[in-house]
Write a structure and sequence with these properties.
By secondary structure, this protein is mostly beta strands. It has helices at 141-147, 158-161, 190-197, 219-224, 236-239; strands at 15-20, 26-29, 47-50, 55-56, 64-67, 70-78, 81-86, 99-101, 108-110, 123-124, 167-170, 176-178, 184-186, 209-212, 256-262, 269-274, 279-283, 287-288, 293-296, 300-304, 313-317. The strands form seven sheets. It has a six-stranded mixed β-sheet, with no helix packed on it. It is globular. The chain starts with 14 loop residues before the first strand and ends with a strand.
């Protein structure tokens, strides 16, 4: 969690600019006077960091909200309810067992890879302990763990549990295609991806939707977190390079993060993003970080805060 910098003089830097190279490796540039770069950190596709606290500076986007006494972000309003996402993935120490047994179905899953020393935990989307796997969210280990009292849901404080709405999550397959440079990513506009998520194009045996409390981000959420000027463009570029397009959802510290949506490339494939922001499909038996999402009940009201990083909205139930 500490940054090692080579500096001149006796003054320790207080700020730095974090970026990633083609391999997704973090590059930190800083000096005692702040930034001395040819362009601003944001223009270079980087994130400004405070080296004293290891925290990202306030981005200026007023969508921070306090939920479960943690920072979450407002994704948008859907069907009259506010959708929020945890600002950073689940930490590594929140669940320390390699397997998880669902209290609802009694199915036993391979769930957690041992990742000592990492900031975030990395979870297998779906693999039963008999090593069978597919991309069905409704019977996945991740879904069970996030929504059961013996899993992540049990770590949410009671007052906040009362604010969570039962939500319909859509499970349509997302098309992956080849880009002009030979890479592969999502094709089409953010709106077209949104419609694919809500389509009936699913693998045999899968469900079109699932109703429950906690899910994961959709790829369209990621698309709409990019600059508004990108929304009506073909998203293949933006989904293959999210880190350089001022995408507020992008997290450079997690090397691999799961989306909710299955992929059209195979019945075992689920969408994810990687450390440089590329969105693609991978087999469900791989491990990725988790950023839970949920919808707030309409009875949730804001009592204070302005939505900034240092003064997030504070909720109570009306």
């Amino acid at each position: 969690n500490d940054y090692n910098l080579s500096v001149e003089g006796t003054t320790c830097p207080t700020t730095a600019c974090a970026m990633t190279n083609e391999s997704g490796i973090a590059i930190i540039n800083g000096n005692s006077d702040g930034f001395k770069l040819a362009a601003s950190c944001a223009e270079m596709g980087g994130t400004e960091l405070s080296l004293k606290t290891n925290e990202v500076h306030d981005s200026g986007l007023r969508n921070y909200i306090l939920f479960n006494d943690e920072l979450w972000r407002i994704v948008g309003i859907f069907d009259g309810e506010v959708k929020i996402v945890k600002d950073i993935p689940l930490p590594n120490d929140i669940y320390n067992q390699p397997t998880y047994t669902s209290t609802e179905t009694s199915l036993e899953y391979n769930l957690k890879y041992e990742s000592p020393g990492t900031k975030y935990g990395y979870y297998i989307y779906k693999q039963l302990t008999d090593n069978s796997y597919n991309n069905d969210w409704t019977t996945s280990g991740v879904k069970a763990y996030l929504n059961e009292e013996s899993g992540y849901y049990g770590t949410i404080k009671e007052g906040y549990k009362n604010l969570i709405s039962n939500t319909t999550y859509y499970l349509g397959n997302i098309e992956i295609g080849e880009n002009s440079d030979g890479s592969w990513s999502i094709q089409g506009t953010a709106s077209e991806v949104y419609n694919q998520e809500r389509s009936s194009n699913i693998w045999e045996g899968n469900q079109v939707s699932w109703t429950g409390k906690i899910g994961l981000l959709y790829p369209s959420d990621y698309g709409y977190a990019s600059n508004t000027s990108n929304w009506n463009s073909d998203m293949s570029l933006y989904y293959s390079n999210g880190g350089s397009l001022n995408n507020w959802l992008f997290n450079t510290e997690a090397y691999f993060s799961w989306f909710l949506s299955p992929s059209s490339i195979g019945s075992d494939a689920v969408l994810h993003w990687d450390g440089i922001g590329t969105v693609n499909g991978s087999t469900a038996r791989y491990d990725g970080s988790l950023r839970p999402t949920l919808n707030l009940k309409s009875t949730a009201i804001v009592t204070s805060g302005d939505g900034s990083y240092n003064n997030p909205y504070v909720l109570i139930e009306s």
